[in-house]
Each structure stands twice: as C-alpha cells, then as structure tokens.
Amino acid sequence: MTQIGAHTERVRQRTHEGFLRHHGFRYAQIATGLCVAAVGVYFVTAARLHEPPSGGSWLGYTLGTISAGLIVWLAFLGVRKRVITEGHYSLKAWVSAHVYLGLSLVVLATLHTGFQFGWNIHTLAYALMMLVIASGALGIWAYATLPQRLHANRGEITRRQMLDALERLDAQLRDVAQPLDRAGAAVVRLSVEDTELGGGFLRRLTNNHGDDANQRALKALRNLPPPAGERQAEALAKIEELLRQKADVLSLARRQMQITAMLEGWLFIHIPATFALLAALTAHIVSVFAYW
Ligand code: HEM
Ligand code: HEM
Description:
The structure is a single chain. By secondary structure, this protein is mainly alpha-helical. It has 2 domains: 3-155 and 265-291, no CATH class; 159-264. The protein is built from 12 helices and no strands. The protein has helices spanning 3-17, 22-49, 58-75, 77-81, 91-113, 121-154, 159-176, 182-194, 201-206, 213-222, 230-265, 267-291. Helix 6 packs across helix 11 (230-265), helix 7 (159-176) packs antiparallel against helix 11 and helix 8 packs antiparallel against helix 10 (213-222). One protoporphyrin IX containing FE is lined by residues 54-56, 60-61, 64-65, 67-68, 71, 109, 112-113, 116-118, 120, 122-123, 125-126, 129, 281, 284-285, 288.
C-alpha cells in the first residue's frame, strides 16, 4: 500500500472508533471546565483591579504557563503517534485530548494576552497558534466527512479497477488506431502517451488538469480533415467514443485523488505551523524575560 493509501486507511479506522466521543466526552468536559474556571478567575480579577489583567500579571503568568505547557504537549503528539500502544493510554485518547485541550487554548491564551495585540513577536506567536488550531479544525472536518465522500464518489469501483479500466481503454485505442493515417495516429498517441493521471500535490488538491492530453486529443480529433474512406470514418468514430470513456474514468479517478489529497492537505499547514509556533513562542518568552 502507498503511504497515502495507508494514511487514508488509518483515517477510516480512526473515524469509526469515534475519537471525538471518547470516554463519554471526558476531554471535552475537562477542557470546558478549564475554560470556565479561567474565564471566571479572569473577570473576577478584572473587577477587583478595575482593569483587565495583562500577560505580566500573576494571572497572566499562570495562564501563559498553562498555555505554553499545553502547546508543547500538543506538539508532542507527532512523536507519540509514531509509538502506537494499545491499552489505557491509547492513541484514541491522545487524539481526543489533543482536539479538546487544543481548542481550549483559544480561551486560555487569549485571556493570557489580556486582549493586547500589536505588530510584535507576541502577537505572531498568538496568530500562529490560531493557525495551528484552525488547521486542526479543518482536519477534524476532513476526517468526519471525506471518507464517506470517497466512498460516494467511487461507488463500488476500487482504485485498482479504475487503473485497469484506463489500461484497457489505452489498449483498445491502440488497436482501433491501426487503419488511421499519420494525423489520426498522432491524436491517439497524444492521449495514450501524454495523459498524466495525477501529478504533484497541488495539482491533485485543486484537481486542475487544464492541459490534460486526453482532452487535447479529443479537440484535435474534431479538427482532423474529413476521413478518406469508410474504414477510417468508422475508426475515428470508435476512437472518439473511447476518448470520451477515458475522460469519464479520468475524472472519477482524479476526484478520488483530490479527496485523498484533502485528507492529507491540512497536515501540511498543521505541522509546519506547529514548528513556527514553537519558535515564536520561545522568542516571546525569552523576550519578556529579557525586558524584565
Ligand atoms: C511560559 C509561558 C508564557 C509566559 C511566561 C508569557 C509571558 C508574557 C508576559 C510577561 C506578557 C506581558 C508582556 C507585556 O505586558 O509587555 C505576555 C503577553 C503576551 N503573551 Fe505571553 N507568555 C507565555 C505564553 C504565551 C503564549 C502560549 C502565547 C500565545 C501563543 C502568548 C502570547 C502573548 C501575547 C499575544 C501577549 C500580549 C503582548 C502585548 O502586550 O503586546 N504568551 N506574555
Ligand atoms: C496549538 C495547538 C496544537 C498543536 C501545537 C498541534 C500539533 C499537532 C502535531 C505536532 C500533530 C502530529 C502531526 C503528525 O505528526 O502527523 C497533530 C496532529 C493532529 N492535530 Fe493538532 N495541534 C494543535 C491543535 C489542534 C486542534 C485544536 C485540533 C482540532 C480541532 C487538532 C487536530 C489534530 C488532529 C486531528 C491530528 C491528527 C491526529 C492523527 O493523525 O490521528 N490539533 N497536531
């Protein structure tokens, strides 16, 4: 199985396990409790001080330390994922905790800032954190909806069957092209030799195949001079039908690849943004202590 195939398979299993509901929403309850407590303490302190507590107050330091600790722990999932163990500390529990405690940072870190934002390294760390969280939410949406879409798109046809169908159509195209003249044969070669099924990640993700060789072949077929005899005319008609069938299979397979790319795509933001966040957070903490 390819790496992408393996990832998609894991995703399917994980969705079935239902990590969001894990342990009767235990981690959702813990995260909510944490947020409610933080909001309560924050507003009571604000009322006492007659001003919102900033990042430099005792409450600011507490919330900042909790937030930074959570971020480091959340980032650790990448390591944890690769050491899968069953049992009490299952990966499912980790992902469940990751999602809900990750979301609680929106409240905890925002309260820590005392709502003071500017064009500085502190706000950069905050913005990167929000980017990591937003991409994580996108991942949850992807895991929850895309496996069904994959299934709905391809029906009962497997990936192998799609590839076999394309191979068969190419073989038929080569056969039918036998009686054609040079121009006609060139059209068939264009489709058989130059058609690219997938391509780079971005191409798969956007499903943009504007320069598709099979489509170009269909267009070139229509622009050919009128056929010389009946055999040629018959062959050209058959080729047009085969090219159209090939276009249908290509479109189905590419849509499948697009959905698979979407299942991976959010991680391309989530992981690099995590590293950037850890760097900016370190700079933030070092800089506040340097000014101290
Ligand atoms: C050990 C952890 C942390 C410590 C010790 C800490 C410390 C501080 C301090 C002392 C301030 C007040 C700075 C001032 O008033 O000029 C502050 C503000 C701030 N912190 Fe943190 N922080 C921590 C974690 C975090 C985290 C996790 C984030 C978000 C990802 C964050 C984002 C901010 C922002 C946006 C401000 C407001 C900056 C401003 O006043 O312009 N901090 N932090
Ligand atoms: C600042 C907060 C966060 C950090 C630093 C963080 C970091 C990470 C890291 C390092 C991974 C491992 C990726 C890998 O190696 O494959 C990961 C996975 C993941 N994160 Fe986050 N994350 C955060 C918040 C969130 C939030 C809020 C959500 C959901 C709303 C989320 C959803 C996920 C999911 C679904 C995975 C994949 C787990 C799996 O493959 O089973 N993350 N995260």
